[in-house]
């Protein structure tokens, strides 16, 4: 079920509608009562409801711009981020992280959801016909497949495969690299990197020479 407008959004729209109504009255336009006019305009904007109470988040921009046009205000863009948008975003991120091709995803979608699709239109088909929970399940499938492939490669080659990432919020548990594209890092290089990170850097040189350096006797007592 789609999320409805918040109380704040409804208050903004009601105030904007009242201002637009007064503007029409000042022009001498014949208009019905404010409530009747507002309901009529809301229906014209959304095409499915005449009430702010029953309007969904996706309707906010449509209603706002309808009333704003009467006032000569600039239209606002639709920044609504739906549950499906979030689910598809995470799926795309997992596909990139594990370097999984769209043809594989299309094969899974055809098998699990029975949607006719190819690697070229799989995301469009999901957007049109799937539900967010379907996409979330596909995301788990991609992640599990990617990690299984990474473990297999690590066992066969003796090197670790780090998972790149796009956004901190989508990081899976485990070691990650701060770049895009799977990078095979030999264990010897990893160990050298850890040792280098544990070694403190030399302090900067001052006017009187190096500071903080302790010279130990070669032959301590």
List the SSEs and their pairings.
Elements: H1 7-26, H2 34-46, H3 60-71, H4 83-97, H5 102-112, H6 122-129, H7 132-157, E1 160-162, E2 183-185, H8 187-198, E3 205-206, E4 209-210
Antiparallel strand pairs: 1-2, 3-4
Summarize the structure.
53% of the residues lie in helices and 5% in strands. The longest helix has 26 residues, at 132-157.
Question: What does it look like?
Answer:
The protein is 53% helix and 5% strand. By secondary structure, it is mainly alpha-helical. It has a two-stranded antiparallel sheet. The chain has a two-stranded antiparallel ribbon with strand order 3-4. The longest helix has 26 residues, at 132-157. It starts with 6 loop residues before the first helix and ends in an 11-residue tail after the last strand. Residues 175-185 and 203-221 have low confidence and may be disordered.
């Amino acid at each position: 079920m789609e999320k409805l407008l918040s109380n704040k959004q409804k208050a903004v729209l009601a105030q904007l509608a009242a201002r637009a109504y007064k503007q029409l009255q000042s022009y001498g336009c014949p208009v019905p009562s404010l409530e009747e006019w507002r309901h009529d305009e809301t229906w014209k904007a959304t095409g499915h409801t005449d009430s702010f109470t029953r309007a969904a988040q996706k309707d906010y921009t449509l209603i706002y711009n309808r009333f704003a046009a009467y006032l000569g205000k600039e239209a606002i863009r639709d920044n609504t981020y739906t549950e499906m948008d979030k689910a598809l975003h995470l799926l795309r991120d997992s596909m990139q992280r594990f370097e999984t091709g769209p043809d594989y995803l299309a094969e899974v979608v055809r098998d699990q959801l029975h949607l006719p699709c190819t690697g070229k239109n799989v995301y469009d088909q999901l957007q049109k016909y799937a539900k967010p929970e379907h996409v979330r399940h596909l995301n788990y499938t991609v992640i599990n497949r990617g990690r299984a492939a990474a473990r297999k490669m690590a066992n066969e080659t003796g090197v670790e495969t780090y998972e790149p990432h796009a956004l901190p919020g989508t990081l899976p548990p485990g070691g990650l690299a701060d770049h895009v594209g799977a990078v095979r890092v030999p264990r010897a290089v990893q160990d050298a990197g850890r040792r280098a990170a544990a070694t403190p850097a030399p302090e900067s040189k001052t006017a009187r020479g190096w500071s903080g350096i302790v010279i130990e006797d070669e032959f301590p007592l």
